[in-house]
Amino acid sequence: MPVTLTNQILIAAPCQTVFEYVTQPWRWHEWHPNSRSAKAEVERLQAGDVFDEVIEVQPLAPLPPRMKRQTHYVVEASEPHRHWQVRGDTGDGWLVIRYELTAEGKQARFQRTLTFDVRWPTRLLLPALKRQMRATSAVALGNLKRKIEG
Questions:
Q1: Core vs surface per residue 61-82: b (16+ CB within 10 A) or e
Q2: pLDDT tens figures, 104-142
Q3: Beta strand pairing status for 83-89 and 67-79?
Q4: CATH number for domain 3-149, candidates 3.20.20.60, 3.40.50.300, 3.40.50.150, 3.30.530.20
């Protein structure tokens, strides 16, 4: 059964600024602890475009093992400055990341929803993965806020 985690944060910046930053996966490593690197063929990713990312998770943190995954994504939806959604294949599972932005005065409410599932044998680690992803998702949004506001 898939796991869904939703986090949101207010960022003191216009929705346009936040959207343009978070929809550049090659910059995710600057704010998301699980992202190691990413590359795409185009500079502005729109629906139908693809990109690749290397992610690393540590489901039993602080204990090893670290699981590194090459993830291939397709952009499923993109409405500039409002929402963006991608679907990724990790080889032993899948994930969907959705970003939604809402203006609140001079701030942007940024909501990130991660839905994921894994196949056997990684499925044995699903409860630990869920805990780890919940923790790193919260850290990521704090990092994002500091990065954009700083």
A1: eeeeeebebebebebeebeebe
A2: 999 999 999 999 999 988 888 889 999 999 999 999 999
A3: antiparallel
A4: 3.30.530.20
Q: What residues form DSSP beta bridges with 56?
A: 68
pTM: 0.94
Confidence label for 45 from pLDDT (cuts 50, 70 and 90): very high
97-114 exposure pattern, b = at least 16 Cβ within 10 A, e = fewer? bbbbbeeeeebbebebbb
Q: Are 2 and 118 in contact (CB under 8 A)?
A: no
3-11 and 83-89: which strand pairing?
A: unpaired
Report which residue type is found at 70.
Answer: Q
